[in-house]
Write a structure and sequence with these properties.
Layout (H helix, E strand, L loop, with lengths): L4 H11 L3 E6 L7 H8 L2 H8 L16 E6 L7 H8 L2
């Protein structure tokens, strides 16, 4: 486990009533900061992929609403792939 600024965000993520993620299209996907943030949410998703494990934040995000906004320069610019990334 890391002890960095993301550790402080875990409590904010768990206490939120819902989420809205947004990103511009960068080479067909989210920007690097958003990708790093999403990757660091692994403690929340581990229990989904491995239900027998004791994930630190198991079930804390379940049933919370999520919205996603993707911004691109034109039609079919990769916005659909960003939305897919957010909803994984």
């Amino acid at each position: 486990a890391f002890n960095d600024s993301m550790t402080d965000l875990y409590s904010k993520v768990t206490s939120a009533d819902g989420y809205i993620f947004t990103s511009p299209v960068y080479v067909g996907d989210v920007n690097s900061l958003m990708k790093a943030f999403l990757d660091r949410l692994l403690p929340f998703t581990t229990a989904y992929y491995y239900p027998d494990t004791k994930a630190q934040f198991k079930e804390t995000l379940r049933y919370k609403p999520l919205g996603a906004i993707a911004v691109g320069g034109g039609r079919n610019d990769g916005m659909e792939s960003i939305l897919h990334t957010f909803y994984r």
